[in-house]
Amino acid sequence: MTGTADPMNWAEARETAWAAGYAARPAASELPFGEAVGSALAAPLVAVSDLPAFPTSAVDGWAIAGSGPWRIDGAVLAGQVPQAMKPGQAVKIATGAQVPEGAEGIIRLEHSKVEDELVDGPAAREWREPGEEAVLGEELLAAGTPISPPVVGLAAAAGHATLPAHAKPAARVVVFGDELLTSGVSRDGRVRDSLGPMVPHMLTAAGAAAGPSIGPVEDTLEAHVAALREALADADLVCTTGGTMVGPVDHLHAALAEIGAEYVINTVAVRPGFPMLLARTEDGKFIAGLPGNPQSAVIAVVSLVAPLLAGLRGLPLPPLATVHLAEEVPGRGGFTHLALVDRAGHRLGHHGSAMLRGLANAAGFAVIGPESVGAAGAAVELATVPGV
């Protein structure tokens, strides 16, 4: 392996990271709803009964049979199995309750007139017929559909308790850097680590099962190798912070070579954050190298890690949003420029690669392509941050 390479185009890097994850996605299994949310259906969702399974009242009212006015005789609530009705009978019925056999219509409560145990009013077939939404065996959703809370609701209504999906990849963050502190304020030439506390939450939002961060790890090759091996022992994805360049204390490239990992992507033509990387071990696990500057590290998560995790869960490449720029945003020559903007398209201050203040108020990063400028009023792509 080598620590230098021609940077990959940013859009190509996103697609490459996603494709690597999709090709390596694990075998699907039947997962409980809570574990399946955020993944994609690995097989079609099929109704295992008619939906609804029986005629269901759509309103609160009076089920009636025969000619009126109707004598009030009984009630049926949701969850009960009613007796068949007789001509001239009225049964009070709740929304969602099973419609009794023999019912010819329902009078809405607000349209009914009750006097001397008799009810009268306009009646209609105010109920859902069996199989109105779906019939037994019908395909409800195609394989590949993202599993959202409404999908879970549909699956439950259709009789399922689990969903066929790809499990969340286990992820760990390894923080490199002798200069980092894990508590208190920056002092004595050392700075407070922000990535160890922040990145795991982004990984969780992007669909991983993120464990606690490891580190800060001593700036030696031996310590880097040991930390990578520790993290890879129980993770499918390891995100490292710092060490992606080739300076005197940047040991990530040498550590990757030591453990036998191969590059998928080695640097990306994007500013900030170009020295990001993605590597794969011999047993198919992934290591994402995030730059040490906080905003650059977040850009690496947006550019490589979120697409990779989508692929690992069987999801499509995360789509980019759109924002209308309120002011001109400069380009960065041959590099894609990811510029912090708010929801109104204003470029934010405190946008240096070592800063987080702008990011904390941002809608995401406006994507300004190579050799271009983002003109005021232009609609441009917006790369959003997981969890924001």
Description:
The chain is α/β, with parallel strands linked by helices. It has helices spanning 10-23, 33-36, 149-157, 195-205, 221-232, 252-258, 294-312, and strands at residues 8-9, 29-32, 45-46, 56-57, 61-64, 70-76, 89-93, 105-108, 113-115, 118-120, 123-124, 127-128, 139-141, 162-165, 170-176, 180-181, 191-192, 209-210, 214-217, 237-241, 262-266, 268-271, 277-280, 286-290, 321-324, 336-341, 364-368, 379-383. It folds into 3 domains: 8-26 and 167-312, 3-Layer(aba) Sandwich (Molybdenum Cofactor Biosythetic Enzyme, Chain A); 56-128, Molybdopterin biosynthesis moea protein, domain 3 (Molybdopterin biosynthesis moeA protein, domain 3, Beta Complex), CATH 2.170.190.11; 321-383, Beta-clip (Beta Barrel). A 7-stranded mixed sheet has the order 9-10-6-7-5-8-11, with no helix packed on it. Strands 15, 18, 19, 20, 21, 23 and 24 form a 7-stranded mixed sheet that branches. A 6-stranded mixed sheet has the order 1-22-26-27-28-25. Strand 23 (277-280) and strand 24 form a beta hairpin. Helix 1 (10-23) crosses helix 7, helix 4 packs parallel to helix 7 (294-312) and helix 5 (221-232) crosses helix 6. The mean pLDDT is 92.
